[in-house]
Amino acid sequence: MARYTGPVCKLCRREGQKLFLKGVKCYTEKCPVDRRSYPPGQHGPAQARRRKQSDYATQLREKQKVKRMYGLHEKQFRTLFENAAKAKGVTGENLLVMLESRLDNVVFRMGFAPSRNAARQLVRHRHVEVNGRAVDVPSYQLKAGDEVAVRPGSRDNLSVVASLESRTRPTLLEWLTLDEKNRVGRIVRSPSRQDIPLAVQEQLIVELYSK
User: Mind listing the pLDDT tens digit for each residue in 73-92?
Assistant: First the structure.
């Protein structure tokens, strides 16, 4: 599957805000989105001067923003949305909960990696195990009670150590617990919308896909 390999700061500029795709560097370095608060490209300044977007454009930008935050491709994101629509409850909230319950996101939330991209690489390289079994699928859906750990042979991995020792790593959320010394975390309960610190309007995504 194709993946984006270009400069991630362009993605942040396109959405007009930091998406924290570079992890710690987004906190410690001055991001291009701070210097040039308009979309990239020769028509970027002109787009920034437009007074109002159409409803469709607003919905599309919200979807693109969330998709890029979690590092998903369109097909993956659409499939996840369809699963969220089939589940009980509010579709938009279901979607965010499913995104947060992905293994790569939980590895990032626990502080084992500085970004979701780095967390995805840790998982792919079999440095992470779930309930004592190595799992190399970043999209693996976790549930309450699952234990996520860095494998014994990888606990001194330089990137893991640096991420845990970083002063700018994200605060551990209430639905997770972490034994930092042993590199083991646990899903205490399924997250609710209030537990997900994202300034997004998920209802706009639902409206976009409902057309």
Answer: 999 999 999 999 999 999 99
Q: Are 164 and 156 in contact (CB under 8 A)?
A: no
| Residue-by-residue DSSP string for 118-148 | HHHHHHHTT-EEETTEE---TTPBP-TT-EE
* Integer angstrom CA distances of residue 27 from 2, 11, 19, 68: 28, 16, 11, 18
Per the DSSP assignment, residues forming a β-bridge with 178 are 185
Q: Which of 46, 40, 183 is nearest to 111 (CA)?
A: 183
How long is the chain?
Answer: 211
pLDDT tens string 112-168: 999 898 999 999 999 999 999 999 999 999 999 999 999 999 999 999 999 999 887
Contact present, 160 and 122 (Cβ < 8 Å) = yes
- Considering only CA atoms, which of 170, 177, 117, 173 is closest in space to residue 148? 177
Torsion angles phi and psi, residue 36, rounded to 5:
-130, 90
Task: Please state the pTM of the whole predicted model.
Answer: 0.80
